[in-house]
From TrEMBL:
GO molecular function: methyltransferase activity
PANTHER family referenced in this protein's UniProt entry, alphabetically: S-ADENOSYL-L-METHIONINE-DEPENDENT METHYLTRANSFERASE YKTD-RELATED, S-ADENOSYL-L-METHIONINE-DEPENDENT METHYLTRANSFERASES SUPERFAMILY PROTEIN
Domain of life assignment: Bacteria
Record Pfam families: LCM (PF04072)
The keyword Methyltransferase is annotated on this UniProt entry: yes
One annotated GO biological process: methylation
Protein name: O-methyltransferase
Native organism: Actinoallomurus iriomotensis
Amino acid sequence: MADKLRVELTGVPETLLWNLYHRAAEARRPDGLLDDPRAVELVDAIDFPFERFGQPAMAQWHALRVLCFDRAVRRFMTAHPGGTVVALGEGLETQFWRVDDGRVRWLTVDLPETVEVRRRLLPDDPPRRRTLAGSALDLAWTDEVDADEGVFISTQGLLMYLQPDEVRSLIVACAERFPGGTLVFDAVPHFMAERSRRGGMNPGAAYQAPAWHWSLDPGEHRKVLEYSPKISGVRDLPYPRGRGLLRIAPLVGRIPLIRKLRMPIVEVRFAA
């Protein structure tokens, strides 16, 4: 057996391993919701103490989240054959291999230390799939996007680590640079962000995720319309149906007592 690749990351970049760990755990299940063999291969190929993340209790939730993003990307690819997906802060997400239709162009943008790991494990395959090292906030990546056939921007697991003014500036910049494009992001409710800043998200655990700074409660997504006149529409995307208690996942946003617990996934459309 080949030697495993040792990975040492801290802070926000380390969250890519936490996300990967949960996706792979769900993909390993015989009744798993997520078909993601590449995620399983990556966990098996990495030398890292994944046990410090504890039991993958959130694996199914991770699967529902990424499946919601997958559905949004597939809708884009159907409407814009040969279009470009820009994945900001993609980490070790393996979405390309789950949704690839043989025509989509894919640009990954992430921090240099993350890109180094990604390139060692998931080498580029130009011209359709490329990786760019840099901050999503730098905006230099916008010059690398071929927008002729449409643009879809994904910010999965990213915005909550930014400051509120940074989030607003990023969304406005995307709206200005990519008319007719689409942005999909996930967010955390206010109470979860406040709790994370107090260090109370996972008390006693070996792993503590970095604090979340930006938050958005379910139902607040229409506030994004106020960011720019170049934003033409916004909607809160429903989660897919899960198993067990999460069979009601598509309906959670409509149940008053628990809807505030939901982490919203929001689709933003830019004016043409």
